[in-house]
């Protein structure tokens, strides 16, 4: 008598349980790996974004100084014509054809330090007057947190001699410097910020066509 046995085509319960366990283990390992990669990527992207932000700020400042304009105005107390560029060791003010907002016309810039916050920027339109009064009425914008800036200015003493100075007093210089050196140091050295430097040449420093006028005595 011949008997026929049905061939087994499915999986046993034990095989299914082993397969599910292995699958769960693999998914767990894969999830942990993906989570680690995502965290690393976000961390690196955050650092990259912060670096790019700093670079963009410094690039804007450099471009603005390169395009500094010999903006002149009449000082009403003395009736003398001044060229607007005022540089101290910890603050600088100038007028440029470059504006972050891409405004038409000239823009007056002021970079100053806040001892606790960092480097601040103030912008105002440059008309035919002295922009200083408008600067005092405006709230500065923090552009580089935890950074303090110091400045030096390159002056042409004679045809063969150039010199870096710590101050550029407009009433004495009556011109633009050849270049501005900006050194940015972290206020809180415990943070991971590093020292930055910018050397910005001023294209129109030689502007003999705009001579300050001194009234006759």
Structure characterization notes:
The protein has helices at residues 13-66, 132-137, 170-173; strands at residues 72-75, 80-83, 85-87, 91-96, 107-114, 118-125, 141-145, 147-156, 162-165, 179-186, 196-201. The protein has 217 residues and is α+β, with helices and mostly antiparallel strands. The strands form three sheets. A five-stranded antiparallel sheet has the order 3-4-5-6-7, covered by helices on one side. The protein has a four-stranded antiparallel sheet with strand order 9-8-10-11, with helices on one face. A two-stranded antiparallel ribbon has the order 1-2.
Give, in order, the helices and strands: HEEEEEEHEEEHEE
Major sheet description: 5 strands, antiparallel
Average pLDDT confidence is 80
DSSP summary: helix tally: 3
User: What is the straight-line distance between the termini?
Assistant: 140 Å
Gyration radius, rounded: 32 Å
Q: What percent strand?
A: 25-35%
Shape estimate? elongated
Q: Note poorly predicted spans.
A: 34-51, 212-217
